[in-house]
Design brief:
single chain; 421 residues; alpha/beta; Glutaconate Coenzyme A-transferase; 6-stranded mixed β-sheet; 26 strands; globular
């Protein structure tokens, strides 16, 4: 195996090409630095990616003529570029992103990857993020990777032979980390209400942040839980280490925790390294509703920006402003509701930190509905649980008003009476 310099590796990128960039903790920052170093000689390079962590210098407005980001999920570091129309956002289910590459809908010219060192047989792995990166690696004619001993060797779908790569760059730098947020009384109250809905033996899907962490912390007294989730974080580790998560009732990958990507601290990266109890797999599999529905008592736990009185869920935008992405919410909501004994839960605080209700009469102008009112079953706030399944619009409004902050219930009730009687 021969390593080349970052400059030599990135010389393979041409103007007007479409370049996939490995995401989350696997963001290949050294390769991106070398790509930006060529900004003066490149034009019209489209970068395609999910959320990028760490250094993402091509987002800077100084390089707008050279690079046009096309985000499949938007993080905080890209919101300004999208708002300034220097970057684009594509709403798409996480389960379907690999299809964009495999079906040639979004054909790739180059993939920039971040991989673990090769084993004795010459196989590297995609480490913390297999998600859509596997499909990119399988379809892009030019693969460029930074090989990092600090990238964990993950088991599952993400093994690639070094012969597949056009260029390899040797690096040794820490992965981006997300420390666990502080769980406040509000998150704890919501977490406890959600935990009451989770039966022993259930299979879980959870995300990242104080609210998902609060839910997981509230499950310490549960038994024989399983995990089939698009995202694996530090908050799952105490439940695995204490024996709460055993994965013994799962119908697929029994005994194993299954995820699509891993994001957290060095502790969770070390935990997944060469760990046969964890499989990091293609998101077209992990997020397939047909697979998810097979899990026993599948329980999906997702968040929202706002929910209107009919149950429509806004999760990717603040009005016209793109905030995050569609991600896998609807993949897991649909899969969980079709699972025998499953539950799809949308959990959110009843109001913002500024006292604005997040249970709203109408979604904000320009906002996008991620999860439709026909998909939504459980909505949870610190004030209670609303089960919308089987309820008409008038009944839904009543149930949601009951879990809104008391300061807003009269105004919401007046609007509900006007619309639904």
């Amino acid at each position: 195996m021969k390593f080349v310099s970052p400059k030599e590796a990135l010389s393979l990128v041409r103007s007007n090409s479409r370049v996939f960039v490995h995401g989350a903790a696997a963001t290949p920052s050294v390769l991106l630095d070398a790509l930006v170093a060529r900004a003066e000689e490149l034009r019209g390079v489209e970068t395609v990616h999910l959320h990028l962590e760490g250094r993402a210098p091509h987002f800077d407005r100084a390089y707008a003529q050279a690079f046009r980001p096309n985000a499949l999920f938007c993080g905080a570091n890209l919101r300004a570029a999208i708002a300034e129309k220097r970057a684009d956002y594509m709403p798409v289910f996480l389960s379907e992103i690999p299809l964009l590459f495999r079906r040639g809908i979004l054909p790739l010219d180059v993939a920039l990857l971040h991989v673990s060192p090769p084993d004795a047989h010459g196989y590297v792995t995609l480490g913390t993020s297999v998600d859509a990166a596997l499909a990119a690696a399988q379809t892009a004619p030019i693969l460029i990777a930074q090989v990092n001993p600090q990238m964990p060797r993950s088991l599952g779908d993400g093994a690639l032979h070094v012969s597949r790569f056009s260029a390899l760059v040797e690096v040794d730098e820490p992965l981006p980390e997300h420390t666990s947020p502080t769980i406040g009384s509000l998150e704890r109250a919501i977490g406890e209400r959600v935990a009451e809905l989770v039966p022993n033996g259930a299979t879980l899907q959870v995300g990242i942040g104080a609210l998902p962490d609060a839910v997981l912390a509230s499950l310490a007294g549960h038994r024989e839980l399983g995990v089939h989730t698009e995202m694996f974080t530090d908050a799952l580790l105490p439940l695995i280490e204490s024996g709460v998560i055993t994965n013994e009732h799962k119908t697929r990958q029994r005994g194993k925790t299954v995820t699509s990507f891993v994001m957290g601290t060095r502790k969770v990266y070390d935990f997944i390294h060469d760990n046969a109890g964890v499989e990091v797999r293609d998101c077209s599999y992990v997020n397939d509703a047909g697979i998810i529905r097979l899990m026993p008592q599948m329980t999906s736990i997702n968040s929202a920006i706002e929910v209107d009185l009919t149950g429509q869920v806004v999760a990717d935008s603040l009005g016209e402003k793109v905030f995050s992405g569609v991600g896998g919410q609807i993949d897991f909501v649909r899969g969980a509701t079709l699972s025998e004994g499953g539950k799809a839960i949308i959990a959110l605080p009843s109001q913002t930190s500024h006292g604005v209700s997040r249970i709203v009469p109408h979604i904000a102008e320009g906002a996008g509905v991620v999860t439709t009112r026909a998909h939504v079953h459980y909505v949870v706030t610190e004030h209670g649980v609303a089960n919308l399944f089987g309820k008409n619009l008038r009944q839904r409004a009543q149930a949601l008003i009951a879990i809104a902050d008391p300061a807003h219930r009269d105004a919401l009730g007046a609007e509900a009476a006007r619309r639904f009687g």
